[in-house]
Amino acid sequence: MSHLLYRLGRWSATHRVRVLGAWLALLVLAVATFAAFGGEVNDSFSLPGTESQAAADLLAERFPEAAGSSTVVVISGDDLATAQSEELRSLAAELRALDGVSAVTDPLGPGAVSPDGSVARMEVRFPAEARAVEEATFEHVLSTVDDARSEALQVEVGGEVAAVMAAEEPGGTSEVIGLGVAVLVLLFAFGSVVAMGLPLTTALVGVGISMATLLTLASFVDIPTVAEVLGVMIGLAVGIDYALFIVSRHRDQLREGVEVVESVARALATAGGAVVFAGSTVVIAMAGLLLVGIPFVAV
Questions:
Q1: When you count CB atoms within 10 A of the terminal residue's CB, does the N or C end of the chain come out lower?
Q2: How far is CA 128 from CA 69, 125, 137, in A?
Q3: Distance of alpha carbon 127 from alpha carbon 93, whole angstroms
Q4: 48-68 residue pLDDT tens
Q5: Can you tell me the distance from the alpha carbon of 224 to that of 268, in angstroms, rounded to the nearest whole number?
Q6: Is 294 helix (H, G, I), strand (E, B) or coil?
Q7: Cα 251 vs. chain centroid, distance in angstroms?
Q8: pLDDT at 62
């Protein structure tokens, strides 16, 4: 393996323009293919063979109105059971009429109103899992709840779906923060913009090609959302980390007076061998999840 990596490193250093051109061409091709045929990942989640999944399937079959996910609407006011009863029933009726809502419990039903009549609750149910509820559907629920607020009524939303919606960050926020931290750490470690930029560039190119390919495949097969998240997270982490090993070895050898092409070949044969081994264990570990039979970690 080391001999093969040595020859690969020497050839790449000797034909650096061709190698860089090939990687850039591959990136452009992947992005262009995604632009033409790209699809979207989905939020389907199931655990076949488990008792919890069997219970969920039975619930969906026998009591479809209780399956899926829900959010809770809590209303506070004076004497809700009498003076505000019409407003509560009107709000429940409006929520039931929304597209994507499968059922709404009676806000004045047994156990729905506090003993002093100042607080009531209703459950808004959706046929889909919490992460699969359309954002537009939930926005309509929030809009309907906002319209019901008044000086006499305080209306708030909580529960499973509300928590999922609130937890979702704008796309790429955490990745951008992570890259910013990586830039600072690498710049401090290397003291050079060029040396700092090389691991970042290789990682970003690799992640770009992988994500474009993954989202292109999403047009033809079901790709779980977790695949996109893990791909970016692991790609950036190991991409920067592994490139850092090789770049560090290369810089050490240059300081020792080794010629550039020879240094690249030696760095790939030594540190590169460790990278191949470590990367293989990551691939094997991820592939091992397929043996568990959990669909959301596979296509």
A1: N
A2: 6, 9, 11
A3: 18
A4: 656 666 766 676 666 665 567
A5: 35
A6: coil
A7: 36
A8: 66
Taking 50 as the pLDDT cut, the residues of the chain under it are none
Q: At what angle do helices 193-217 and 16-37 cross, to 10 degrees?
A: 40
Note the pLDDT of residue 299: 53
What are phi and psi for residue 292, nearest 5 degrees? -70, -25
**Phi, psi at 289, each rounded to 5°:** -65, -25
Angle (CA) 210-213-217 rounded to 5° is: 135
Residue 285, pLDDT score = 83
Rounded-to-integer distance, Cα 171 and Cα 98, Å: 27
Contacts of 194 (CB under 8 A, 6+ apart): none
Closest CA to 109 of 126, 132, 92: 92
Judge contact between 48 and 88, C-beta under 8 A: no
Residue 59: the pLDDT is: 63
Are 141 and 101 in contact, with CB atoms under 8 Å apart?
yes
Cβ atoms of 240 and 219 within 8 Å: the answer is: no
Here the tokens at position 118 are: 């100042």
What pLDDT is attached to residue 191? 76
- Residue 101: how many CB atoms within 10 A of its CB? 22
Degrees to nearest 5, angle at CA 179 with 252 and 227: 110
Length of the chain: 299
Classify 16 in phi/psi space as left (phi over 0), alpha (psi -120 to 50) or beta. Answer: alpha
Strand stretches in 56-118, DSSP E: 69-77, 103-104
Contact yes or no for 223/299 (Cβ under 8 A): yes
H helix or E strand, kind and range, residue 203: helix 193-217
pTM over 0.70: no
CA separation, residue 26 to residues 64, 213, 268 (Å): 48, 11, 22
